Every structure is written in structure tokens, then in C-alpha cells.
Sequence to fold (122 residues):
Amino acid sequence: MTDSNDLKADQLIAQMRKEEQIRQAGYREKALKLFPHVCGRCTREFEGKKLRELTVHHRDHNHDNNPPDGSNWELLCLYCHDHEHTRGIQEQRCMDTPAERQDKPSLAHSPFAALGDRFKKS
Fold:
């Protein structure tokens, strides 16, 4: 019985990862066609093998919001993208008291937020 549940869980996780890769590949390719290969923050230029260091940042932090005109996207290098996602967290930590910090989520978007619901449907 446990092996069957483990197999279903493994299949579901593999399917979700594949869907995520397909979704990311689609909007990344579109963003690279729409925008110059320059980081929107540090203005570093990327070409050739270095192009893999350029990422797509969702301005509203919703990875499912991918308008065809790219209005929710911004090309950022790995370092600036990481900084962008930690910037709000650091600012909030400075303003909150220790008691307030414990209850708040650390990121605005969590790709695994509904994972439990998907397992319940099986």
C-alpha cells in the first residue's frame, strides 16, 4: 500500500516539475525575444553562454501572470534577481518587532503553496 502511494506521489511531483519547466521555458524564451539581453538593475549585458545567467523576474511575483506583451516581466541577472526577492524581506524585518516576524510568510509567491491540495485529490 505504501509503495503505491509513494509511486503516485513521485509521479505527481515529476508531472508538476515537468509542467513548471514547460511554463518557464515558454515565458523565458518570449522575454528574451522581447527585451535586450541586459540586466534591468545592474545593466550588465549578456550573450552566448552567459545568457543563462539572465533570468525573468515577475514584477508582481505571480509566476502564472505571463501576459504576451511581457508587461509583468523584467530581465535580471542571477544576483539582482536574488537581491530583488530578498529586498522586501529585509526591509520588513527591520520594521517588524520580533513577535510580528514569526507569523508572516517569507515570500509573496510560494510555488508549493497548493501542493497539499494536489495530493488530497489523488
Residues 27-120 form one domain.
